[in-house]
Amino acid sequence: MAFKGNLALGLYIHLPWCKRKCPYCDFNSHQANSIPQDDYVEALLHDLEQDLALIWGRNISSIFIGGGTPSLFSGNAIDKLFSGLRALLNFNPGIEITIESNPGSADSEHFRSYRECGINRLSIGVQSFNNEKLSALGRVHDSDQAVEAIKCARQAGFDNINIDLMYGLPAQTVSQAVDDVQQAIDLKVEHISHYQLTVEANTIFHHQPPEALPDDELSWQQQYQCQNLLAVAGYRQYEISAYSQQGRRCRHNLNYWQFGDYLGIGAGAHGKITLAGENRVIRRIRQRQPEAYLRNQGHDSVINERSLNHADLIFEFMLNSLRLSDGFESRTFLENTGLSLSQVLPTLQLASEKGLIQYDAVRIRPTELGFRFLNDLQAMFLDHKLSKNQPFFMSDR
């Protein structure tokens, strides 16, 4: 295989603590009354030091601090973190740096401190502006706090704000879903992540399902009406659940979806790195439990590392790239997987016959039908097997 050697490189930093675990959340988050912030920052920087040999000579194009609720960390702790990051890494000019926040977990002072550290994008977990729905979701904030958080962020100097909104909530009507999106539009946020509530394994909702969840048809009507409203308001859907104003796409998440590289540091963080000189792509996973992660400080926290095989590369590339409304350019499949696109041609042809994608010599993209039934489209590549009659690689051009 032959990989492109200059893929974009992001950095994901996981801060795993929350005030309270939400009943729908399957992320690696843990309720805590107190957080060992200084110790955890030291562990993060040690993680990064262990990974530097993997990315020698490469610049960081984006940073995303996720959780958990990262805004539970003080401005001083985040400043210490970024002092260490800048000592170890080269940042691209104009780097995008995002931190997640929940309403009620941060105030104007926190937000100003984050801006002073160089963070220039804020993602706020609103989920809904309807207090009844917020209560059903187990959120610790109300609608007024959500609006106040956005106002505080503006006052602190943030001019690039995302808010997360859910639809398909218990007993939610189409008009209620639309009202949530309209309020986000009225607040003039630059980016909206709009996604359906799903009941995941290992969550409270999985063991105690909420009542009156909308069926598939009602959820589709909510999605359809909200999509139309966002389009009229000037928000372009560039990914299955992401809508942005002109020039405000999330560069960090876009790098994931384009199958770019990223380091992952922190408890339970995942990373994906292309080792072009070795013609392989590796995925690394770190110790998940915060207490064990901190006890491991001074040692390598990676608990699993594996090289992706051909079937992995094909499926993971398609899993991500087909989430994009514009799909992907044909050449990027070779550059990011080291494989010839001819190896998936039969599957592409079948997907085209089903009306799920359209493709030519330049670009492959999902159709409107493919976007609606994205899981079915992605699954077509899950069991893809390489043909014995196809070449395993093509040289760079």
SSE layout:
Layout lengths: L8 E7 L1 E2 L11 E2 L5 H15 L8 E8 L7 H14 L2 E11 L6 H9 L4 E7 L3 H6 L6 H13 L5 E7 L6 H13 L4 E6 L7 H4 L8 H17 L3 E4 L2 E3 L6 H7 L3 E5 L4 E6 L4 E7 L3 H6 L6 E6 L2 H12 L6 E2 H8 L7 H9 L3 E3 L3 E4 L1 H5 L1 H6 L18
Parallel strand pairs: 1-4, 1-11, 2-3, 4-5, 5-6, 6-7, 7-8
Antiparallel strand pairs: 8-10, 9-10, 12-13, 13-14, 15-17, 16-17
Helix pairs in contact: 1-2, 2-3, 6-8
Descriptive account of the structure:
By secondary structure, the chain is an alpha/beta fold. The chain has two domains: 9-256, TIM Barrel; 309-397, Arc Repressor Mutant, subunit A (Orthogonal Bundle). Helix content is 36%, strand content 23%. The chain has helices spanning 37-51, 75-88, 108-116, 131-136, 143-155, 174-186, 204-207, 216-232, 251-257, 290-295, 310-321, 330-337, 345-353, 368-372, 374-379; strands at residues 9-15, 17-18, 30-31, 60-67, 91-101, 121-127, 161-167, 191-196, 236-239, 242-244, 261-265, 270-275, 280-286, 302-307, 328-329, 357-359, 363-366. The strands form four sheets. A nine-stranded mixed sheet has the order 9-10-8-7-6-5-4-1-11, sandwiched between helices. The longest helix is centred in the middle third of the chain and has 17 residues, at 216-232. The model is unreliable at 385-397 (pLDDT under 50).
